[in-house]
Amino acid sequence: MPKTKTQKRKVGYWDLRLYVAGQTERSVRAFDNLKKLCEEHLKGQYYIEVVDLLRDPKLARGDQIIALPTLVRKLPQPVRKIIGDLSNTERVLVGLDLRPRTQEPV
Predict the structure, then answer these.
(1) Which pLDDT belongs to residue 12?
(2) pLDDT in tens, 73-105
(3) What are the pLDDT digits (tens) for 42-70?
């Protein structure tokens, strides 16, 4: 369901935008992985907007998209981007700041 401009967001709400190129296997896998991750870690606190760049390639300019699929976290700030099918759950959690980065041994 598309969001409307009048729809209010709650504090702590996650606004996520997934850029894809059609219904490819990789695009579908990225959406499925994102949905699963959100249900496990952000239940009831997120909105996912899927942007198909095959339908409107100009939309890639706003978020400077150079590869697909790409996930853009619009809220909470700062904006973050993750490229790929989001199958590496640990990498996605760290990229979204849902899990701290582990320190590499020195």
Answers:
(1) 77
(2) 999 999 999 999 999 999 999 999 988 766 554
(3) 999 999 999 999 999 999 998 999 999 99
pTM: 0.83
Distance CA 77, CA 12 (A): 10
Q: Are 65 and 19 in contact (CB under 8 A)?
A: yes
- Sheet of 80-83: strands edge to edge? 46-52, 14-20, 70-75, 80-83
**Among the four given CATH numbers 3.40.30.10, 3.30.420.40, 3.90.1150.10, 2.60.40.10, the one describing domain 14-95:** 3.40.30.10
Q: Where are the domains of the chain?
A: 14-95
